[in-house]
Amino acid sequence: MFNFSTKLKFLRAAITKKNPIYAQIAIESHCNLRCRMCGQANSNSNYNNSYRASSNLSLEQIDRIAFNLQKTGLPLIVLTGGEPFLRSDLDEIIKIFNKHKIATRIQTNATLITKDKVEKLLALGLTEYSVSLDTLDAKKQDYINGMEGSWEKAIRGIATLSEVLPTTTNFSLINTVVSNYNLLELPTISKFVTAIGFFHSLIPVHFEIKSQQQRENIFRSSSSSNLIISATDWEIIDDIYSQLLQMKKSGHHIHNSKIFLQQSKEFLKYGKPSNSSSTSSSKFTKNKFKNKCDSPNLYFHINSRGHMTPCLDLISDISVLDPQFISKYMSGEINKKLKQLTSNCSGCIYPCYAEISYFCHSFSAFIERGFGEIKYKRYKRKSLTFDQILDMSKKYSLSSSSSSSSSSSFESSKKHNNFGHQDV
Fold first, then answer.
1. Which of 43, 155, 166, 391 is the most buried (most CB within 10 A)?
2. Confidence class for position 271, pLDDT limits 50, 70, 90
3. Under a CB-based contact definition with an 8 Å cutoff, are residues 23 and 77 in contact?
4. Element (H, E) at 98
């Protein structure tokens, strides 16, 4: 959990809507997996020659970036990649952000996590992780990740976090990308995540950009066609998300806000937020969030070249390493440049960004997050071993299979679970 100073910065940002709350930094441009829905590998390393990363940021460069970010008042940064655990100097990076009084969280696929690494980072104060897990089916996850054995390695990593991290005042997430591959599994995955004491964040798959003009500036999955949920299954989207909303109400550890879950249904159908779609009838959506993007005022991304971008999908040539970065940031010059990029974007619903906008603009979302904070403080989870978590995954996976087979949408279930026959 965050300290009092960090929480005060969150509150100030929510009031002013001009102070950054959250940033991501890609400290590693490479990844040991090749996940089918991920565009970050392209964004960080090899989408085209002009933006190919020849190397990762050095510790000296990261220190310079952290110094500049501290000047902006940033309270929280998430270390992403690629895969952060590919860096052997991860502990030194944590030390740098600690020195500059910026709280850290790691976003990882968990396949490279070891007890020694987690204990070393824990000694530096790192207690919060975001871990990717898209299914309880090992073969399906291996297929999605593009690597055999990756599901078991991820479960081992999750078990290591369960055993090593504090059982109280700890908030670690399981991230699930929602797609054609796992739609029917979502309630079961949420039950599993709740049972092992983590919290669940659901991320709608983001479609490939079709416009050539946007393609030059936006990175998303190049294999999204088989991830998209067919229009014939849109009723299933509504049904699954109704279940998730009810589960959240009944106490399951679904971290997404109610607003976000409602918006996710529309995004999965139309490939853009409902706030920029005529399909929405929500007064809140139309009046408060029409084409709303709060980057870089409230959040932004720093890629593996040290360039500040509105988000992980977009690119820019604004270097946080620039000696004049702070003066340009404070003058509004950088804000103006990044706003020009977001004005041409079709929109996204990544929870790391969208949830911050909801928190800062919606009173109901603000109150919901406040009560969530109280809940997290009081919560104490059990420390579980790999064998215990593996047994629980099997239990819930069997329950999911039984439920799917008995549903009236059996044909759709077969299609969703017939992942291995889709050529991506």
1. 43
2. confident
3. yes
4. helix 90-99
Count H helices, E strands: the chain? Answer: 18, 8
Residue 211 token pair: 């416009």
Q: What angle do CA 221, 188, 255 make, to 5 degrees?
A: 70
For the chain, the domains span 13-292+299-421
CB atoms within 10 A of CB 292: 16
Q: What are phi and psi of 35, to 5 degrees?
A: -65, 135
Dist CA 389 CA 380 (whole Å)? 17
57 and 44 Cβ atoms separated by less than 8 Å: no
State the amino acid at position 314 in one-letter form. Answer: L
pLDDT, tens digit (0-9, with 9 covering 90-100), for 387-423: 999 999 999 987 766 555 434 333 444 444 555 444 4
Task: Report residue 159 as tokens.
Answer: 């078990």
| DSSP H or E stretch at residue 105 | strand 103-108
Q: What is the pTM of this model?
A: 0.87
Specify the pLDDT at position 408.
Answer: 38
HSE-up of residue 381 (Cα within 13 Å, Cβ side): 25
Burial 384-411 (b: 16+ CB within 10 A, else e): bebeebbebbeebbeebbeebeeeeeee
Give CA–CA dist 161/75, Å, rounded.
24
DSSP 8-state class, residue 402 = H
Round to whole Å and give the CA distance between 257 and 342: 24
Phi and psi torsions of 24, nearest 5°: -115, 150
Residue closest to 132 by CA, chosen among 34, 226, 247, 221: 34
Instruction: Write the single-letter amino acid at 280.
Output: S
Vertex 19 angle, CA 17 and 25, to 5°:
120
Buried-state track 241-250, b at ≥16 Cβ within 10 A, e below 16: beebbebbee
Neighbours of 134 (CB within 10 A): 26
State the residue for tokens 């909303």. Answer: 245
Structural contact between residues 171 and 376, judged by C-beta atoms closer than 8 angstroms: yes
